[in-house]
Amino acid sequence: MASSQPRSSREVRLVRQPQGLPVVEDLAVADVPLRGPGAGEVLVKNRHFLVFPGLRTLMGDETDGVPLPPLRAGDTLFGPAVGEVVSVGAGVALRPGELVVHLDGWREFALLPAERCAPAGESLPDPVAHLSTGSAAYGALTRLAPVREGDTVFVSGAAGATGVLAGQIARLLGAGRVVGSTGSAAKAARLREEFGFDAVVVRGSGPFARLLAEAAPDGLDVVVDTVGGEQLTAAVANVRSGARIALVGALAGQLSGDRAGGSAPAEVDSYRLVVQGVTVRGYRGADHPDVPAEWERQFGQWLREDRIRFPYATVAGIDRAPSALQELIEGRHFGTVVVAL
Questions:
Q1: How is residue 318 annotated by DSSP?
Q2: I need a labelling partner for 228 at 20 to 30 A (CA). Which of 33, 35, 47, 308 fits?
Q3: In this structure, what are the phi and psi dihedrals at residue 326, rounded to the nearest 5 degrees?
Q4: 134-287 homologous superfamily
């Protein structure tokens, strides 16, 4: 056991169901009593936790089929976190001071069964990199829509947590041209200048399908779609024969104030899919249990070789965590968003 046992912890709770997109007032920071770990339990002091758009879906009314429990008024938010073991109960192999990864973020201290923690290890040079969502991008580009040498790859939502890694991964796997999309000229410039994108379409700067065609005049071989909506429509209109489309997100519907967070209709030309022999598949992590470990090894190697960059925005302190979710939804940040404690 640790020499000093914290008596309380602060955590972020949902205080009311959002009407449309979540706002700061829908969340509150609560102080709760904290006990020591019992047999088989571990107490972790969280260092960083992930802010992710899926929370909007969990707070909504369309959660059927979602592989995570819904959030209702009074519930504490949760999500990927990296923290340091403070104390352990009987029968636990973990030791105080050890870094672990778990899913009880959005709180200063997490008391949970030891089997729900995984040692962070030393595979990644920066512990925060364990909060990367790059596993989905890597899995999509190696399992669902394999990149071939010289392919033209389009990544929608390229300045987001998954998209910015997807573009870099595509290049490392042999893509000849990488095209992205984003919502601002400033983000587009960063994608080109810092992350190797050849062209970036700025949403709202013109007809999306025409702009995408100009950015990829020879058509698209691979699509990693994190957005859906008109961007998926445009991608289908610009595919080449034998193209592979991997769906890894649907932010156009998920972050729409007019929807409930669990649907994202998109109009696609099914005739073009047929005559071009296009495959369209959705990526589910549960279908590819071997991907996370493979990704972690490859990600760590690429990071150490300075062949990939992991951009993340840090929001400091549990008190700012409620605003961090609203800022993510409003697109104020670039890359992954984490709260540092």
A1: G
A2: 308
A3: -65, -40
A4: NAD(P)-binding Rossmann-like Domain (3.40.50.720)
The residue among 240, 226, 182, 188 whose CA lies nearest residue 208 is 182
Cα distances (Å, whole numbers) of residue 58 to 61, 63, 219, 226: 8, 6, 36, 18
* Domain formed by 8-131+311-340, architecture: Alpha-Beta Complex (3.90)
Q: Say what the pTM is.
A: 0.95
CA count, 13 A, side-chain hemisphere, 182: 27
C-alpha Rg value of the chain to the nearest Å: 21
φ, ψ of residue 283 in degrees (nearest 5): -90, 120
Strands 99-102 and 8-14, sheet pairing: unpaired
**Cα(234)–Cα(331) distance, integer angstroms:** 22
CA distance 126 to 133: 14
